[in-house]
Specification:
The complex is a heterodimer of chains A (542) and B (576). By secondary structure, chain A is mainly β. Chain A contains four helices and 43 strands. The chains are: A mainly beta (542), B mainly beta (576). At the A-B interface, β2, β3, β5, β12 and β39 of A face β4 and β13 of B.
Chain lengths: 542, 576
């Protein structure tokens, strides 16, 4: 799959040249541009919104809408002007940019008033109590979302920046605002690392981190749907459970090596639990932890070894600890190094930009998508790229290459006889993985066009389903003028569908993917071909 | 009982209905009943925790029974911290006053089984902040002040900070009963001193949905040249209700278990643009490039401006040097009200100097930071008693040992770096100042001697034009005083213990305090050597204990003490 290249956004240049053709001759400006800002869901006027204008000459103006949502700019020259409206509580003010913020309007003596629609954000709120109904205070609430690129779960709340972490108050209440319409998994757990010791039960108790409605693994969790302008409730009743420990031994390292072990929850990777680890024997035992799934990751470095590639040995394992775990064996294996050979680019073009990613698939519980970038060394002959010390796991491989003169597409990615465009790469205990061969070809195809969004409230989401064996759909939000562009595509038969921009592009949503497929149109792309289409927005119920 | 930090522990509530015994090795017990301090009714399913004072993390928790009783059995002799809490009752220590509490002494001949733990129900103060449009103001800073005895005098001091959520709501929970005031500070979300158009340039227009890091560049347009009156606005700091200062704010009285709703409507006013003239010494070394690092060895002058409320710095304001006019800074976006301006510079390649000025601004104005003459020059040396290091601590960030003169009733404070041999010199207008030292680790000011100025405790009085020489002695306070508070031969728990230095009776910050434990015992640590009076006052926690007029009736019956350097003194004061 090719990653789309961000393109510099020459909106003003393109639009102003398009618009001049339509300018009425002998325009008698400076003119006044009047308009209204409305809520795209309810239609109600939005008061106190900031409207900023930017015209051909690049000068900017700003004003606030009144109680009727109305605004005006006086003394504008004739021509086109970009307007952007923002207000907290609407998607254009969200810290995560989702929709296009600009709209373009004409300034002239007799133009209709401008209408700007703002889409309100959604909210997830709820209450966390214990099994007696008493509130649990200072519990952290996180949101997990599946990435549109590959469906891998990631911590969405990290994108909400300064407002983190979200914690419950003294009544057990929490509230996460500014959300786009999408499906989220809600994850709740104690904010701190307190351990409780009580003598009235034989074992201390604690609270596990759980997904709504109260499960420790993402696979059994129920996603919550957030709608624009609405609040979705998620309440939790948590039961304290006996704490558990994870114990075992790390084997497979030479004496004198430095051994380390980290134990962390999938969605709190930075907080590693205290582990008692004996360097000599490799025996370890964690402190008491709430039951749940933990990622154990061990590494041993032999400082005496002269061979760098074998000096480090690693092991990682996901442990589901619902009760005490004893006798766990973590067998350290030599680092798996995977080399990458690039074909189809001359070294000159390769040094421009080549990126190979190994995206980790969540091992059941879902890991943040991590890209391991192959070391590209400028000036080196192609083929001298490698991933160092890859932890065992399942990965999908992504490659992209750019040259100054040519558009490349990925013809194939393989390792040995395994086709890595169709399959994931499993890095396991077996020592060696055949080098990854990436074949680029000149002559990438382009699929672009315009969506008719004149009457659409929220804009358009364009979905392109690549031919098999590539698995993931490509999503893009159309520009303000309805245009879209997918680059660096390999030849083949694609399907393209356009839906309302508020639809959540979740590749893990099988029903949505089926609906998109059924309303899509087929498009064939030959090598080097550019196809341009004009499309309408299709209604699809989520 | 040494100071105890309140940990916000989570309550474990179990489905149990009988009083539970907690056992650990040893033969002693702690038992009692937990009651509501207002009604006197016993409280069931309250969590009661004990921990040995020597290892406070080893807590043992027990829930009270349906008649409010608790029992810990099989304990070793020693002292235990006792805390309790429940939903609706702040987690608190036994007989807690400020940060002091009564610990339970357990052992032969000691009664630790008839404890009556009064739990004070907590109060809540909440409210909403909205703007001229009737829209909620989100992320407003909300300050909670409490009128209480702080450093021994009735003052209103900041006790908590909060923020409003997306609906403009804020909430302070777990409050003890008392008298409170609330203030709000926010910036209008749409305000910008540089006009519109800046938002166009913020990485918008992504092509990839859902990827936070794939942004598209867009050339930002040229911002408006003249300030836009609609956007160039601020909210002044607002006190409840509709007051502009802490003194005119409405005090809110919260009873145990009570609640109050304090709402605010913020009104936008034009932002003030202020011009500040730095002191001449600072301008001499003025460089045209904006100074980044105030610790750089080359001459650099820095300037910072912040909004201040009751001595607390709330938010920094942006201040830029005025191009073409060295020594001048311009502050944008200032709200009317109190500001703290701080300038720092290196004097002719000499010591680093810092000057702060508190200014009240209400209109576009020019502020001159030049100290009003005639100035008195203060110079001298800082020396240490202890043979151990006088080496000033350099904490690695280049912040050097400094001597500050902090104003008492005036506007300007000045600080200067102390030289290698302990020498310092600075100049200030006449007035009263407190001498303060930083950067010497644990060492504190033991005494200040001067042939010229009037010195009382650490406070000096400067007269105009009169140079003053000071000799400042530092020492590490490592003495201690311990004993039992006794009244007619019986130990008194919960008494306030006060250690007052004879020479510095006006300076409450130099007093030491403790609360006597269940056996009447107390410990005062980290005391400087010197002459003191030791007092023990029963039910003394509501006294303005720093006020000499109040202490006057207790001092004659206090215990005089002379503490030699490095010593530990034992004394049993008579409880009054």
């Amino acid at each position: 799959m090719t990653r789309l290249i961000p393109i510099p956004f020459f909106l003003l240049a393109i639009l102003s040249s398009l618009v001049r053709a339509q300018e009425s001759p002998g325009s008698s400006c400076p003119c006044t541009l009047q308009g209204t800002v409305v809520d795209s869901i309810s239609g109600a006027p939005v008061r106190g919104a900031l409207v900023e204008s930017s015209n051909d000459t690049g000068s900017a103006r700003g004003t606030l809408t009144d109680s009727q949502g109305a605004f005006q700019f006086e003394g504008l020259p004739a021509g086109s002007v970009s307007l952007m409206a923002t207000k907290p509580g609407f998607l254009t003010s969200s810290p995560v940019p989702y929709l296009k913020k600009f709209s373009t309007f004409q300034v002239g003596p007799a133009v209709p008033p401008a209408l700007i629609k703002l889409t309100p954000t959604g909210v997830i709120y709820g209450r966390v109590v214990d099994d007696h109904g008493d509130p649990l205070e200072n519990f952290e609430v996180q949101l997990v979302r599946r990435a549109p690129s590959d469906g891998t779960p990631f911590l969405f709340t990290q994108l909400l920046g300064a407002h983190q972490p979200f914690v419950t108050d003294d009544r057990g209440n929490f509230r996460i605002p500014d959300l786009p319409p999408a499906a989220f998994f809600v994850l709740v757990g104690p904010a701190g690392r307190e351990t409780y010791r009580s003598q009235d039960t034989s074992v201390p108790l604690g609270y596990s981190r759980v997904f709504y409605p109260g499960v420790t693994d993402l696979a059994s969790a129920s996603p919550l749907k957030v709608f624009a302008g609405r609040e979705t409730q998620a309440n939790f009743v948590l039961n304290a459970k006996p704490l558990v420990y994870i114990a075992g031994s790390i084997v497979g390292y030479s004496p004198g090596s430095q051994v380390g072990l980290s134990v962390a929850e999938t969605f709190k990777p930075a907080e590693t639990a205290d582990v008692h680890l004996d360097q000599q024997t490799g025996l370890f035992q964690t402190r008491l932890l709430p039951p749940g799934s933990y990622n154990l990751s061990a590494a041993a470095t032999d400082s005496q070894s002269l061979d760098v590639s074998t000096a480090t040995r690693t092991a990682s394992q996901l442990v589901k600890a619902d009760s005490n775990v004893s006798g766990l064996r973590l067998v350290l294996r030599p680092c798996v190094n995977i080399s990458v050979n690039i074909h189809g680019l001359s070294s000159e073009e390769e040094t421009e930009r080549v990126m190979i990613f190994m995206h980790a698939r969540g091992q059941g519980a879902g890991r943040q998508a991590m890209g391991l970038r192959a070391q590209d060394k400028a000036g080196m002959p192609p083929g001298d790229m490698h991933f160092v010390c890859v932890l065992s796991g399942t990965y999908w491989i992504e490659a992209s290459g750019y040259g100054p003169n040519h558009a490349f597409y990925v013809e194939s990615i393989s390792s040995g006889s395994m086709d890595l465009l169709a399959n994931d790469l499993v890095v396991g205990s077996s020592a060696s993985i055949s080098p990854i061969e990436v074949v680029f070809r000149k002559g990438a195809a382009t699929l672009s066009g315009t969506v008719n969004i004149a009457n659409s409230s929220h804009g358009a989401l364009v979905c392109v389903i690549p031919p098999s064996p590539r698995k993931f759909p490509l999503f893009q939000i159309a520009e303000n003028d309805g245009s879209f562009q997918f680059l660096n595509l390999s030849p083949g038969t694609y399907r393209i569908a356009v839906v309302d921009a508020l639809i959540d592009p979740d590749p893990g949503n099988q029903e949505l993917m089926k609906k998109l497929s059924s309303i899509s149109k087929e498009v064939s792309l030959a090598e080097g071909q550019s196809v341009s289409l004009t499309l309408d927005v299709n209604a699809v119920e989520e | 009982m040494p100071r105890w930090l309140i940990h916000c522990a989570l309550l474990l509530l179990f489905a149990v209905h009988t009083p539970l015994a907690a056992t650990t090795p040893g033969g002693f017990r702690i038992a009692g009943v937990v009651v509501d301090s207002v009604s006197g009714a016993p409280i069931d399913r309250a969590a009661v925790l004990i921990a040995p004072v020597t290892s406070l993390d080893d807590t043992v928790t027990v829930l009270t029974s349906s008649n409010g009783q608790f029992l810990f059995a099989g304990l070793a002799a020693g002292k235990y911290r006792l805390t309790a809490g429940r939903r609706g009752y702040t987690f608190q220590g036994l007989d807690q006053h400020e940060t002091y509490m009564t610990a339970i002494a357990v052992g032969q001949g000691l009664d630790s089984e008839h404890i009556r733990f009064r739990l004070f129900p907590e109060a809540v103060l909440a409210g909403n902040v909205s703007n001229d449009f009737g829209d909620p103001v989100r992320d407003a800073r909300v300050l909670l002040f409490q009128r209480k005895i702080f450093s021994g005098a009735h003052t209103t001091s900041l006790v908590s900070r909060g923020a409003t959520d997306d609906k403009g709501n804020y909430r302070f929970a777990h409050l003890a009963a008392g008298v409170y005031t609330v203030a709000v500070y926010a910036k209008p979300w749409y305000a910008s001193s540089q006009g519109a158009g800046l938002r166009f340039g913020e990485g918008i227009g992504i092509r990839q949905v859902g990827f936070p890091d794939s942004n598209v560049e867009h050339a930002p347009p040229i911002p408006e040249s003249a300030p836009n009156p609609i956007l160039d606005v601020v909210y002044p700091v607002s006190f409840y209700s509709n007051a502009g200062t802490l003194d005119t704010a409405t005090p809110l009285s919260l009873v145990p278990g009570g609640s109050f709703s304090a709402d605010f409507t913020l009104h936008a006013v034009p932002a003030l643009r202020l011009r500040v003239k730095l002191p001449a010494e600072a301008s001499e070394n003025f460089t045209h490039s904006p100074p980044m690092d105030e610790t750089a060895s080359d001459s650099t002058t820095t300037f910072a401006a912040a909004i201040q409320v009751s001595g607390e710095e709330l938010e920094n304001l942006s201040a830029q040097p005025v191009t073409g006019e060295p020594g001048y800074y311009e502050i944008f976006d200032a709200p009317p009200g109190e500001l703290k301006l701080t300038a720092s510079w290196l004097k002719n390649r000499g010591p680093y100097t810092e000057q702060s000025k508190t200014a009240q601004v209400s209109a576009e104005s020019r502020i001159d930071m030049e100290l009003p003459g005639p100035l008195a020059s203060v110079s001298g040396t800082v020396q240490s008693n202890s043979r151990s290091n006088l080496t000033p601590e350099d904490d690695g960030e280049g912040l050097s040992p400094m001597l500050y003169l902090l104003p008492r009733g005036t506007e300007n404070s000045v600080g200067t770096k102390i030289g290698e041999k302990g020498s310092f010199s600075l100049s200030l207008p006449a007035g009263q100042y407190e001498v303060s030292i930083s950067g010497y680790g644990d060492s504190q000011i033991d005494s200040i001697k001067s042939p010229d100025a009037i010195v009382s405790g650490h406070i000096i009085n400067l007269l105009p034009g009169k140079p003053v020489k000071l000799e400042v002695q530092l020492t590490i306070p490592n003495c201690s005083v311990a004993g039992f508070a006794m009244k007619e031969g019986k130990p008194i728990p919960g008494a306030m213990i006060l250690l007052i230095p004879v020479d510095s009776a006006q300076n409450a910050s130099l007093f030491h305090r403790d609360q006597s434990d269940s056996d009447g015992s107390f410990t005062l640590a980290n005391v400087l050597p010197g002459r003191y009076t030791l007092l023990a006052i029963e039910n003394g926690w509501d006294l303005e204990w720093a006020n000499l007029a109040v202490l006057f009736r207790y001092l004659p019956n206090g215990q005089p003490l002379e503490i030699k350097p490095g010593s530990s003194v034992t004394m049993n004061p008579k409880v009054q």
